[in-house]
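G., the chain you wanted modeled:
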Amino acid sequence: MESNTFSSQLLLFSGIGILIMMALGLLALMLSNRVQKRLLKEQMDKQALELSHQEELLIHNIKIQEEERQRIAAQLHDDIGSKLGVLHLTLHRLRKSDHASEQFAEVFEEISGLIGNTLETTRRISHELLPPTLEGFGLVEAINEFCDTVRRTGAVEVSFEHNFSKSDLPESDTELHLFRILQELLNNTLKYAAARNVMISLMQDEATIKLSYSDDGSGFDLENTISRGLGLRNIINRARMIGGELQLSSAPNMGFQAKLVLVNKA
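Predicted structure as tokens:
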């Protein structure tokens, strides 16, 4: 009888011990999972913070780039361009002087040609840095001018459609970023895509403004290109700076498409 009682107690204590061990094991597992989740959250928060910091740096760099472009464009136009113009006029005055000779005329033609080419190069670089058409006539005319320039190269056929007038367009900062986005997209097509056709559309309705871009080029792996290429990241960050929703689509042999949607504040 005592033996049976002892056996029962032994089984009871053994069962209690096993339950305690299982409870401790489960508790340890729960604590381990909680610690792992906390570490994972901290790591994700750190990565998100680093990504946010990188985006802030890129946006800051874009702003600095635009300020530098405006400064350099102004210096090229107002300082270097004007001095070259004065030099050109002075050279023409020398040609008309009584001391001009046949030998001088040959030298004049050479120097005049060099100054003229330098003036044209200065104007071209100044216009690329800060298109005067954008400031003076707005986004639609600037896009038309840019498309005409590309068409004249014969590299690709560009079509552009819109339903805008100048008074419909957003503020100048938005115009500038939209133009830079389009400029970057078209330059990428010319450099890498081997495309024959580019289609650009700038449309608005009461709620939204939509800029659409597509080419029939070679396409690319979008995810890898965004991670490695500064150009597409600049486009993405410019879109964020003006509060736009940007969609990019591409794959090898499938061309490239981009759509940017903005809230219409008009």
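The mean pLDDT is 78.

Shout if anything looks off.
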